[in-house]
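In the current project phase, we have settled on a layout for protein records. A sample record is reproduced below.
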Amino acid sequence: MPKPPPSPLASVPPAPRPAPPPRECGSFVDPFQVDPALEAFLQQASSLLCRWLGQAGHGTPLPGLSVLPVVEPEAEGLGSDRLLADLQLVMEGAYNPNHPGALAHLDPPPLSASIVADLICAGLNNNLLAEELSPSLSRLERALCAWMAGHLGLPEGSGGVAASGGSLSNLMALVTARHHRGLATRGDAVVLCSEEAHVSLIKAVAVMGLPAEALVRLPVTAAGGLDPLALEERLARLDRAAIPVIAVVATSGTTVRGALDPLEPIAALCRRYGHWLHVDGAIGAIFAFSQRLRPLLGGLGLADSITVNPQKLLGITKTSSLLLLADPRHLQRAFGTGLPYMEPSWGGGHQGEAGLQGTRPGEILKLWLGLRQLGLDGMAALIDAAVRRRSELERRLRAVGGLTLCSGPLHLLAFRPEACDAAGAERWSAATRAALLGEQLMLSRPVYRGLHHLKAVLGNPHTGSEHLERLALVVQRSLAEVTDG
């Protein structure tokens, strides 16, 4: 009996079973196998972030509306979809430093490698308190601080510690200086700085238990830097009165105009009187990585301590500040308490005893990876381009005329109408800032020497000549309105 012809369905493979629904990401990651739910969760979150960053130029630096999601946790934990939706709401109301018109503050767009390192840092969840809690990161922090200190001119054997912002770096520097000078119990000790030094020094003096008058603010020259003659006169007067000096703080990069204190004469005075020299280089110290601009920071290597904030120009994600010392052993002497609940250090001391912070994340990872991504040439290119943008905007505003410009050699530029009193400058700055925001250009509005100014920070690599031209046109129109009024 002949066989029946094969069914046309005989060669068709059986239909695949429907894929199971994706497993919800658990609160904690499986330690024994790769977790596909976590991978999917991270990919979705990364997509949200990439879209937010990639659409920056189509919006404005400041969001038009900020919606706050529900704050309190619900009785049962949320799944990935709802968590991502909440994240989206927060992101839509966030300030966007990736926008080309974000020119208001020292907050540049983030480096891609620094973003990635921040993610890895969170996943590792290591603790820089002690070496056994962060073996590789403790070594990395010590090594990178030593390299950075050497590049800034500090002597062999120099090093330091990472800190959560320049305010903390400055505070730790002054505490270390006071400990080294044996002045911890002297309530009459003082700190000297310029009248344009950063406000973090006011906080530092208060935290150290000193009266406000302990911060002695000295006059600046027309260029905005500390006047060495005024410093010399005050040091001599303090010496005659036997009033102890904790430290002299020189500023490399003031907040409004980016002025530089003259480091070499200040260092010479500190050596003559035997005082600690701290350089607040949170803004300007990183400019030493430009061969063209490095001479502006002559004398930086003569400091006893330096604050440097790579987050302010190089795009290292926040926070990224370093306190660097010519002799980093002073940090352990000032802050070492012993960690009896930890195994002894095996490689140079626990980083939790090298500063005020105990538990802290491995933020050094994003600085290290970001610098590796840029390379020395890339760092110099970022710095030089920022200064060129400031020079270009300065030329455009000088051509407009009718403005008082306040700048230095770095990438900051403040300006106001020449003929305005305090009330007029306040009205003009508010109206012009609003007009600039209408053109998707965001500047800040600091009060400088009693008058409101507009300030541009030209560290955004996405900002082009077309943005600077538009900025100058808006300012020109604003001056015409001031004249007409």
